[in-house]
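User: My instructor asked us to take a sequence, write out its structure as tokens, and then describe one feature of it. I'm not sure where to start. Here is the sequence I was given:
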Amino acid sequence: MSKHSRRPLRALGLVCALALAATACGSDDDSGGHEQVGATDLQTALKNGGTVTVWAWEPTLKQVAADFEKKYPKVDIKLVNAGTNNDQYKALQNAISAKKGVPDVAQIEYYALSQYALTKSVTDLKPFGADKLAGSYSPGPWNSVQAGDGIYGLPMDSGPMALFYNKKVFDKYGIAVPTTWDEYVDAARKLHKADPKAYITSDVGDAGLTTSLLWQAGSHPYKVDGTEVGIDFGDAGAKKYTETWQKLIDEKLLAPVAGWSDDWYKGLGDGTIATLPTGAWMPANFASGVKGAAGDWRAAPLPQWTKGADAAAENGGSSLALPEAGKNKELAYAFVEYANSGAGVQTRIRNGAFPATTKDLNDQAFQDTAFPYFAGQKANKVFADAAKAVPAGWNYLPYQVYANSIFNDTVGKAYVSGTKLGDGLAAWQDASAKYGKEQGFTIDK
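Assistant: Let's start with the prediction itself. The structure tokens for your sequence are:
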């Protein structure tokens, strides 16, 4: 996946949250249910044809749509870029609220999907047979498209995390690739001492990175059971994260540069930002945005919170979902299954996407792919191993989009003031709980 910014979005809201437990908001059908749809129904729909409107910003879908139309000449896939992540979510929520102009298919990132599922704004795909695909996807993405007993999207891609590091810089200063986060802190100290202009990484506070590192550390800050929500950043996993990351903040070992900014790209290019812990979708961004450093960078497994452990996490990734108010459900599902489980997956891989499908992750040809940017390294092997090592049981809030929008007002203060990271997380917890109560959720601490 490409850029994973987390711009504030305060206008989204849960438009009927106060009645969540009793109504199927966003649908004229109070039951929110659909009759079982068989393969014959899908084939009939494809034969009869029609138009499917798809809202998505993921670039590889353009070729997938063209191939689908060639295979099914009576089907017209209308691909619309309604904006990236939060911009699209705002437009989607507006369309759902107005009950007008709702697409048949929408790209929704994993962290945002649960709020649409809870408000019944997206369709449960189990009646279409989506549950039979359970073994087709790696654990992180598959867990992320489920809510309660329903399946509310099919995974489109995934973001198992790796540590991208500048080998040229590491070799210059005799720094070994860290295998634990304690070693990572030591590497940060050694690098910054050798070159005060160089930093181990940049971080000015990022909700996506923080939650991913908490996930890897075994933290479970969010408990979700329908409209009952628990928020607790005080478990052992969270303490591992705060104690380690606080050292990097206190010792000023993090470059004060915002991700995806011009200065960030410059730092990745000139070696003053020496590592990047992020998702497997990043290589294409290196190749297009940091061309001058081709051959300098490599991918390694994410450092571990406990020596000898083998845990990763997901960072980013999206599903394709069917908005409940959309039309042509059979055609829409047929396209989603083609794109995310069928022939479209290989098309997307060839065009630079990182798959969520276990068959493709385990494919020897996929793992043996040499990355010219990484001096021929077979980086997909690192990413595929990470996908298998994602701890189960992670949940996002049903209003994670809003929670992420207030991250810089709470946790972000730890990066620019004397506020401790643990206190920032506590403030985030309180603010997220307050908002949840206002929206009609039962909050358990």
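For the description part of your assignment, you could build on this observation: The first helix runs from residue 39 to 48. Try explaining in your own words what that tells you about the chain.
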